[in-house]
Amino acid sequence: MLRNIVSSLGLAPRRPAVPARMTGDGPAVCVAGHFPAIKVPEVMRGRVTFAGLPPVDLGTAGIDWRLDPHRNRSWALNLHALRWMGRLVVEYERSGERRYLDRATAIAEDWVRENPRGGSGVSPWAWAEHPVALRTPALVCLSAHVTARWLRDSLVTHGGILADPALYRQGHNHGLDQDIALLLAGARLGHREWRDLALRRMTASAEIAIDAQGVLHEQAPRYGVYVHRRLGVAMEAIERCGAEVPPGLAARRRSLETYVSHAVQPDGRLVPIGDSPAGMRPEGFAREESTVRIFDGGYVFGRTAWDDPGAAHYSIRFGPGRRLHGHEDHLGVTYHAQGRDILVEAGFHSYERTPYQKWTSSPEAHNVPVVVGAAFREGTATRLTGSSVTPVRQSFRLTDDAYGVSRTRSVLVSHGADLMAVLDTVPAGSALRSLWHFDPALTVASRGDGRVVLADGDWRVALVQLAVPSCRPLGGQAVRPGVVSPGYLRTAEAVTVLSPAARAVLTLIVPGTADPEITVSEESGEVTVRTPGGPVSFPPSLGL
After folding, report:
1. pLDDT confidence bin for 113, thresholds 50/70/90
2. If DSSP codes are grouped into helix, strand and coil, which group holds residue 162?
3. CA dist 128 to 74, 175, 268, 502, Å?
4. The model's pTM
5. What letter would DSSP give residue 439?
């Protein structure tokens, strides 16, 4: 007999281990963090809103589970995940109003009846691995109050799918959701083997997914935020199921905080690397004192200061080839200074399989050098071959053969006197063109003699390009309209600057001025740039 066990909104007593059989009498652990906020009155009327898209009327009876009105993968996944139903159960437990539980029960029973596994005409999202993982906790939550056979049988089916090694996504955020779901199903059904399997997989998967420095191998800081949050849910669920949180699991979760905090710009927004939306604002992540950090997993993050909205911030990408939620962004940089985004990525638009979405993952959507006339080799790794870090200046050198020839980028960032200098080179006989995508707020104010000046109101930023080794102005830039994604399913026009073809191009980004004075020493060959914050001098090689 199923028993009504209090949810995470109350105090859940620890229970002794249950026998290794499906008694159906274990704890119905209901962690409110499983379920996103919903507009409860709307859902009660049969209206749902998913993935930031316009609301859809499902009706209050006989839901069409094959609906996909927006032709959007995220919307269809959310429909079948039933997390919106789980929130109604939480609302019932909070308020005691039976109508919320009755509506949740009707939704779940309708889903189970209309979506038999392997049934004809059933939506492919009904039994996809991620909706199964997200739906199971909602069904467990409902089972605290509903003792119907259809619900128990559905939980058994869900648990069997979750335990199937052929369907398990080890080292992936989906795998973590599968582990949480299997843990809860195993505890509820009295299937200790499932519970123990979930704990073993969860720990092993975290060690694969998160390295010792906290970098998530899915290659998008946004997913570092998601996995951190889900690990918090997992740890609460483990304790409420009467088990102990594995120390290694807790350690990997803590390490994520350093990675995420360094990826947050001074304005509080997450830098849009990989499948990370540009408007995301993570909060509450612990940070270290260091303002510059090199992560061996493929990131450099630097800033002039913490807790200063006017501080500068930059990112540089290298490391293993693209996987999961990463983009082909190696050698790419972003730059934020004087309270403004300057160099941006195309960003994350959606999971829809469109030409634009495919382009946002390509090298051309990032601030990178492209080798003229050469084919790009997807998934190529990039090495960080040198670095020099001081409080006022940092230099880095990276190289790869993504175009079949050695492609090298050196980056120098000056703090205090804001400046980013980037040297791109390829061997003799090859040529490159470097791409620069500017924030949509910036428009072209002037151009000529190797310079492009962009403006936002009275504020200016100058892009200056020099030939190397002569350090003479390199003219012939192509300035063209581009498109970036400032948020999910959003696009905005932006300026893209493409350098002329050359074997070596030195690009200077000078915030706060339209006309930086640039001189070259005849004796040493050093370049001096007079910025609003003072002069900055460096060799054309950028010191590495």
Report:
1. very high
2. helix
3. 13, 13, 35, 49
4. 0.88
5. P
